[in-house]
Amino acid sequence: MSGILEYLVGVETPKVLVIGITGKQGASRSKLMMKMGTNVVAGCTPGKGGQEVNGVPVFNSPQEAKEAMPEINSACTYVPAGAIKKAAMDAMDAGIKFTVLTADGVPTQDEAVFKEYSKAKGCTHLGPNTVGMLDTSGYLFGLIGGSASWAKKNYLPGCVGVISRSGGLSQLLGAFHCRPNLPGPREDGSFGPLWGDKYPGVSAVMCTGGDPMPGVTMLDAALAFQKDPRTKVIVAYGETGTTQENDLAAAVKAGAITKPIIIFLGGMFTKAGVAQSHAGAMIRNEEETYAFKRKIMEEVGIIVVERPDAVFAQTAKVLGL
Questions:
Q1: Which of 278, 282, 289, 316 is catalytic?
Q2: Does a structural domain hold residue 140?
Q3: Domain span at residue 248?
Q4: Are 258 and 314 members of one domain?
Q5: pLDDT, tens digit, 9 for 90 and up, residues 103-128
Q6: 125 classed as catalytic
Q7: pTM of the prediction?
């Protein structure tokens, strides 16, 4: 069965270029990606062409890699924030349809430049400031899971599609949906198992990142999960700042998204102009406040909870577990 990238960008089988593969993180994380089943076919680092890392051939640039291996259709970057703009644009220039940008601290001006560039090129990027994405059909981009053995035990196939603006919460919301007999607070006020041995599992986990100008937005991810036949319920972490949750509510109101959505909304006590946690969480106007977002989401039937552990009881209720 197709993974979530088929519905997000039309890539049925990812064939991946790792940009920055010769660095410490690039080498270790590309190894994790491969152990999770990701088809990493090439890597690139300027001046390192001709080497091999984890048995993967290294080229000097995305263009050189693409020319040698035309099947490359996606990429994952492990380069510093200051190098992300060039890495992203080089990947787009090479005709790579989808790129994951893991670095945090990328200047917003750079994000604006390559976001417009991606539109002109017809390409898509996830991030920056993302732990990436994991699909239980058998591939991983980025940092999710820590180790392959842990990830394989804790991210199991099922029907929950996870979207998060937070790296940590994308992993929590994914892994906890895969635990049998998960304990938690119930709607009646008691505490105990929310489901039995039959856990809901996940179709995919997608972290949109915590920056003010993400590539793939919460709405983009939700529209992909809407098309994905594996996904029965969408679970998300949202927060103040940007209009991502507002756009999600508008799509539900318009009927573009009909699957149930459960969202833990953070930032209840965030004040305008205060940088709390992610750069993208800063409130610039009333429509980016917690109260406004919660109101418009609840008006269209999105289930909003105030605690991350309250998500799981709502998942069980929606699925009838």
A1: 278
A2: no
A3: 156-321
A4: yes
A5: 999 999 999 999 999 999 999 999 99
A6: no
A7: 0.96
